[in-house]
């Protein structure tokens, strides 16, 4: 019986790859090209550096995906990352040191996630407007705490998270495992059901409000931790460092097949999407394109990946 | 039979939406080992009653009893825990989750905090076997056709081993062998002592099958008695409150020979090869089981879904002949074709807006480049309200109207455009009897004025008593075309089921 | 007449609340702060509000039509940077440059409208992506430097008065009047409310949704362009980021003015009051504390606080 359950679980997991084949193929292609162009990447050290560059995007893509699966959206990802970095850099000097900083960041993520959840999940205000307004609050708070980049991150932490060791890769694996476990709980499945068919899920006895609330909590914590990581990378807190991440997160999720109406998509798609974008940005960097060109590319990716299926569907409807 | 105590009961339930009473003082008892039929027309309050019994809605007044004890604030979760399961008509499935995950949704067994996939696999196999669910349990539900999803919905209700099982029109999208299977299953469950509430529009099915019946009419109970001694006509009388024949105005044809619309090999995604002719003054009925292409055909005619044809001619007043179907709704409107959707709340009316605004919307859309002249507008809506007998303040939002009055607004909003072809999709769904009669008379009057009326309906008597001609769809094809004299209920139902017996009017199909 | 007045009050109750708030705030501030109530100062407030108000026209129409325009700030920046670049020798009056930059702004709106109306992209995605693309392009074109404009029409717009009323305010009043007339005085304007309430009902009633959507976003682009010009005339220079504060303030003005964020209900009348209210509050905050951080926090909290007035999602 146990074997049967395991088999069922993995068969279900495999079915969720449907529709992601093209993305995985493109990703493999780009990764190969990248490895041929820059053969140095294949060493452990270079790989660790590459994963460190990818890690923040992967984290925010995951955070955005969790929210989008419930049918919501989060436009405050960027400012939240900034605030996370600011809080991390300004609490690590405290009496509790690194652990105090980590606790403060976790608390920040949970509190902000709970606030969004209270508005969106409990009171059902539109997620767009709530998170847009919140993005300004968070940006303001970050500026009030640290008007300019500064603060202090212990070098030991920077070295541990963003040094030569592949810590980021391990953390990513951990993230995937935690997500898999969460998805295997009734709450995790309820999250998809709530996004897919909220009324039906409610009638089936799923705690739709709780599932959504937990999604915003988890998302908030992931975003705040991304801020901590970014602070460790740069060695300081920066009140605007996260700004580009809102769009990067949405772009990665959309690229990974996560739908706007909820229910559709999988974390693996979003992570693959963020990896693809990370490779693109690296390539653009090596091609000496200005950094802002990535904005243009991200915008085009979002519009393109959402528009293509719509256009294809309308052609098919046209008989 | 010894009357057992009801597992689930209701006392004096009342519920209103936007000030419209939907249920009035309704009491009902669901007893173990009994199949209890709940009957009533669309809009009589059946769905609301189910939602109250299963905790999806809270009553305005009255009590719900479980094992004789009143329960305060019943929620779907609590109802599940007490053993009340509903097979919803609007399915409660999550399309992106697998069959197995859907079956257990909301009631998973856990193993160390995680979903017990082992137990789920066993249950899916066991219940699936009983229901003939041959698809692999890892299949995402969104991949299944509607009829199969319905089976998953039933499996999901069985998963919690219910003491009370409520079926909301479970057979409406099931294939015939599945209906037989379901009947057997429900009887087995009854014999095991489950209390069953069964809602269906198929009266013969209900008479054969149910032990007890409660009939709702306009939100109140008109009968609550054992089934024995009731025949289909008796049931209809209870539901409608009068003899079915008296509902319709006396039949009189106003059909002329002038073609207004003609197509050859008209096709959409779900309708195929339709040859279609429509004449001035005619009421043409369209029948068929739900989902056999007739809705697609009608919306395709209207330019609302993509369609193609070998020939498409509109001969409406002054309209030139053409070869392709309408590309969009605006074009159809410009050529004098109007459409009244079946789901008036989602497709027909702007619920929060005023009656006035709703009545003017098609006019504004058709002639958008003009200023608004409030005095003229007021005169127009005044006339419309008078003609269709819509009383009261017209600045009220339409959601404050009863279903019948809403439907009148949805129909009469087209009259300012003076359409020559009126397409109606189930116009009497969820409408009280009096308004039904008013709508029938209005349709007749429009035909008499020389309009062509196309009436798609799920209510077979309307096809029989109202229409000059009836075409019946089966699997996307026109299975029969019947003149008024040939259009008996038997002939229509036979054609809809795909039984080839009916003689055809327009020569042999391809 | 009394009935019509009563209807008007009921229909615009939320807008009227915003006007009352402005009146109360102005009265209280005039009594408390010397110089606040001076004509020149109040005029200055309204001049500042004109920029938000102009952006708010497009935003109001987009929101009533069931969408949202997150590209307004980028369009403002585009016009503020494109105009100086387009100012060339033979165009001594500067009219050609203005016409060209407004055309660019409207064209950006048209692209938004085409993506939303014809392809079916969610407004959020289309306009957000547009904003990002424009932002990237602007940095590539203008870099980090500010570009000064010398344009006679613009100079006049920024400084002239007619009967002691600033030209910028007059311009706002004219465009606002046109907008109000479109929304409430024409049939096509009422259709905006229809598609914002329920696009499917509108489509089946023959409303040309796609065309109307393009029109909505063209108007939004055009109005943001006007706002960009006005801002440039006040600032004298255009630079990347000049439009950034106006995204949230335009949405805030819409929400403060009582237009439902869910679409289908509202009026630009409220947004006018919302714009003035917003500028007044910002001015008062600045008196107490000029920090950018506080402004951002208070603006965000203001919108969150106004949400209960703006309607919630009924679906579960």
Global shape of chain B: globular
Cα gyration radius of chain B (Å):
24 Å
Approximate helicity band of chain B: 25-40%
- How many helices of chain C? The count is 14
The total count of strands of chain B amounts to: 21
Separation of the first and last Cα atoms of chain B? 57 Å
- Largest beta-sheet details of chain C: 2 strands, antiparallel
How large is the radius of gyration of chain C? 19 Å
Strand order of the largest sheet of chain B: 6-9-10-3-11-12
Count of helical regions of chain B: 17
Helix-and-strand structural type of chain C: mainly alpha
Oligomer: heterotrimer
Number of strands of chain C: 4
Secondary structure topology:
The complex is a heterotrimer of chains A (319), B (510) and C (316).
Chain A: H1 2-15, H2 21-37, H3 44-69, H4 77-91, H5 97-122, H6 127-145, H7 155-162, H8 167-183, H9 186-196, H10 198-203, H11 208-234, H12 245-255, H13 267-286, H14 293-317
Helix pairs in contact in A: 2-13, 3-8, 3-11, 3-12, 3-13, 4-5, 4-6, 4-11, 4-12, 5-11, 7-11, 9-11, 12-13, 12-14
Chain B: E1 8-17, E2 20-30, E3 35-40, H1 46-53, E4 61-66, E5 69-71, H2 76-81, E6 84-87, H3 99-104, E7 110-111, E8 114-115, H4 117-131, H5 146-159, E9 164-168, H6 176-191, E10 195-199, H7 203-209, E11 212-217, E12 220-226, H8 232-240, E13 259-266, E14 274-279, E15 283-287, H9 294-301, E16 311-314, H10 329-334, E17 337-340, H11 344-348, H12 355-366, H13 374-387, H14 403-412, E18 421-425, H15 433-448, E19 452-456, H16 460-466, E20 469-474, E21 477-483, H17 489-496
Parallel strand pairs in B: 3-10, 3-11, 6-9, 9-10, 15-19, 15-20, 17-18, 18-19
Antiparallel strand pairs in B: 1-2, 1-4, 4-5, 7-8, 11-12, 13-14, 13-16, 20-21
Chain C: H1 2-11, H2 13-32, H3 39-64, H4 72-86, H5 95-119, H6 123-142, E1 147-148, H7 152-159, E2 161-162, E3 165-166, H8 167-185, H9 187-197, H10 199-204, H11 209-235, E4 237-238, H12 245-256, H13 268-288, H14 292-306
Antiparallel strand pairs in C: 1-4, 2-3
């Amino acid at each position: 019986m146990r074997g049967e359950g395991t088999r069922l679980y993995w068969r279900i997991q495999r079915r969720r790859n449907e529709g992601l084949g093209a993305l995985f193929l493109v990703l493999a292609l780009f990764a190969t090209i990248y490895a041929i162009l820059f053969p140095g990447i294949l060493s452990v050290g270079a790989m660790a550096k590459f994963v460190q560059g990818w890690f923040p995007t992967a984290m925010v893509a995951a955070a955005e995906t969790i929210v989008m699966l419930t049918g919501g959206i989060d436009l405050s990802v960027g400012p939240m990352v900034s605030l996370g970095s600011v809080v991390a850099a300004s609490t690590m000097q405290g009496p509790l040191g690194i652990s105090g900083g980590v606790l403060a960041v976790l608390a920040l993520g949970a509190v902000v996630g709970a606030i969004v959840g209270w508005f969106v999940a409990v009171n059902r205000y539109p997620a767009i407007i709530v998170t847009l307004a919140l993005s300004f609050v968070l940006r303001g708070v970050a500026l009030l705490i640290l008007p300019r980049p500064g603060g202090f991150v212990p070098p030991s932490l920077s070295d541990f998270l963003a040094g030569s060791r592949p810590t980021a890769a391990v953390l990513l694996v951990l993230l995937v495992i935690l997500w898999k476990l969460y998805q295997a709980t009734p709450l995790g499945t309820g999250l998809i059901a709530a996004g897919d068919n909220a009324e039906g899920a409610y009638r089936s006895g799923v705690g739709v409000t709780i599932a959504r609330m937990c999604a915003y909590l988890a998302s908030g914590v992931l975003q705040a931790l991304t801020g901590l990581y970014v602070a460790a990378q740069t060695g300081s807190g920066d009140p605007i460092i996260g700004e580009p991440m809102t769009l990067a997160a949405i772009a990665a999720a959309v690229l990974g097949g996560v739908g706007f109406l909820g229910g559709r998509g999988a974390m693996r798609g979003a992570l693959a999407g963020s990896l693809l974008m990370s490779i693109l940005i690296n390539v653009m960097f090596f091609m000496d394109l200005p950094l802002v060109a990535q904005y243009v590319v991200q915008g085009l990716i979002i519009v393109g990946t959402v528009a293509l299926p719509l256009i294809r569907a309308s052609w098919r409807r046209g008989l | 039979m010894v009357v057992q105590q009801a597992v689930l009961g209701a006392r004096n339930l009342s519920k209103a939406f936007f000030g419209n009473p939907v249920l009035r003082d309704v009491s009902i008892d669901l007893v173990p080992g009994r199949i209890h039929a709940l009957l009533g027309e669309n809009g009589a309050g059946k769905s609301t009653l189910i939602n109250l019994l299963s905790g999806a809605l809270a009553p305005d007044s009255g009590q719900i009893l479980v094992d004789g004890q009143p329960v305060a604030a019943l929620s779907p979760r609590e109802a599940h825990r007490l053993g009340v399961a509903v097979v919803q008509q609007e399915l409660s499935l999550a399309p992106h989750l697998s069959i197995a995950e859907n079956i257990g949704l909301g009631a998973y067994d856990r193993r160390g905090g995680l979903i017990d996939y082992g137990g789920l696999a066993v249950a899916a196999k066991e219940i699936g076997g009983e229901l003939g669910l041959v698809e692999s349990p890892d299949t995402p539900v969104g991949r299944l056709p509607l009829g199969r999803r319905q089976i998953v919905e039933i499996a999901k209700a069985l998963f919690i081993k219910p003491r009370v099982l409520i079926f909301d029109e479970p057979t409406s999208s099931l294939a015939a062998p599945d209906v037989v299977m379901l009947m057997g299953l429900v009887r087995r469950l009854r014999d095991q002592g489950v209390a069953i509430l069964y809602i269906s529009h198929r009266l013969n099915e209900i008479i054969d099958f149910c032990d007890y019946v409660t009939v709702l009419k306009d939100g109140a109970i008109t009968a609550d008695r054992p089934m024995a001694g009731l025949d289909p006509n008796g049931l209809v009388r209870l539901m409608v409150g009068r003899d079915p024949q008296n509902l319709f105005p006396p039949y009189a044809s106003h059909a002329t020979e002038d073609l207004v619309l003609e197509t050859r090999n008209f096709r959409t995604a779900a309708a195929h090869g339709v040859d279609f002719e429509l004449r001035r003054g005619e009421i043409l009925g369209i029948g068929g089981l739900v989902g056999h292409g007739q809705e697609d055909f009608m919306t395709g005619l209207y330019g609302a879904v993509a369609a193609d044809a070998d020939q498409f001619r509109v001969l409406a007043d002054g309209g030139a002949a053409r070869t392709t179907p309408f590309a969009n709704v605006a074009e159809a409107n410009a050529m004098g074709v109007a459409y009244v959707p079946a789901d008036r709340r989602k497709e027909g009316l702007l619920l929060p807006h005023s009656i006035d605004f709703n009545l003017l919307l098609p006019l504004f859309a058709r002639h958008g480049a003009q200023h608004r002249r409030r005095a003229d507008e007021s005169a127009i809506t005044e006339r419309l309200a008078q003609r269709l007998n819509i009383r009261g303040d017209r600045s009220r939002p339409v959601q404050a109207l009863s279903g019948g009055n809403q439907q009148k607004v949805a129909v009469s909003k087209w009259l300012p455009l003076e359409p020559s072809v009126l397409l109606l999709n189930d116009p009497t769904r969820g409408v009280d009897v009096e308004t039904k009669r008013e709508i029938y008379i209005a349709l007749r009057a429009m035909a008499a004025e020389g309009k062509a009326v196309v009436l798609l309906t799920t209510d077979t008597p309307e096809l029989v008593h109202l229409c000059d001609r009836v075409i019946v769809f089966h699997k996307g094809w026109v299975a029969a075309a019947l003149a008024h004299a040939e259009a008996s209920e038997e002939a229509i139902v036979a054609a809809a089921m795909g039984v080839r017996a009916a003689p055809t009017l327009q020569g042999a199909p391809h | 007449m009394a009935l019509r007045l009563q209807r008007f009050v009921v229909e615009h109750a939320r807008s009227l609340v915003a006007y009352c708030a402005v009146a109360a705030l102005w009265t209280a501030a005039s009594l408390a702060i010397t110089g606040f109530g001076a004509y020149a100062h109040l005029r200055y407030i309204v001049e500042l509000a004109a920029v938000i108000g102009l952006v708010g026209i497009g935003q109001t129409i987009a929101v009533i039509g069931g969408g949202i325009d997150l590209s307004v700030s980028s369009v403002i920046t585009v016009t503020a940077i494109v105009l100086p670049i387009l100012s060339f020798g033979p165009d001594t009056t500067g009219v050609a440059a203005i016409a060209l930059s407004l055309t660019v702004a409207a064209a950006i709106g048209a692209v938004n409208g085409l993506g939303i109306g014809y392809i079916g992209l969610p407004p959020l995605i289309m306009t957000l992506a547009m904003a990002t693309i424009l932002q990237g392009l602007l940095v590539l074109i203008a870099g980090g430097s500010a570009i000064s404009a010398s344009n006679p029409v613009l100079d006049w717009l920024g400084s002239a008065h007619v009967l002691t009323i600033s030209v910028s305010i007059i311009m706002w009043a004219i465009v606002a009047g046109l907008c109000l007339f479109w929304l409430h005085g024409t049939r096509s304007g009422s259709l905006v409310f229809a598609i914002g309430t329920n696009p499917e009902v509108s489509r089946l009633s023959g409303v040309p949704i796609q065309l109307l959507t393009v029109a909505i976003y063209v108007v939004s682009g055009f109005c943001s362009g006007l706002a960009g010009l006005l801002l440039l005339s006040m600032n004298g220079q255009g630079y990347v980021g000049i439009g950034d504060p106006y995204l949230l303030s335009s949405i805030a003005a819409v929400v403060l003015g009582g237009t439902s964020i869910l679409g289908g209900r509202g009026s630009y009348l409220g947004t006018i009051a919302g714009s003035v209210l917003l500028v007044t509050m910002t001015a008062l905050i600045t008196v107490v504390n000029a920090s950018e951080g506080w402004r951002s926090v208070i603006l965000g909290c203001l919108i969150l606080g106004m949400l209960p007035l703006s309607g919630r999602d009924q679906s579960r």
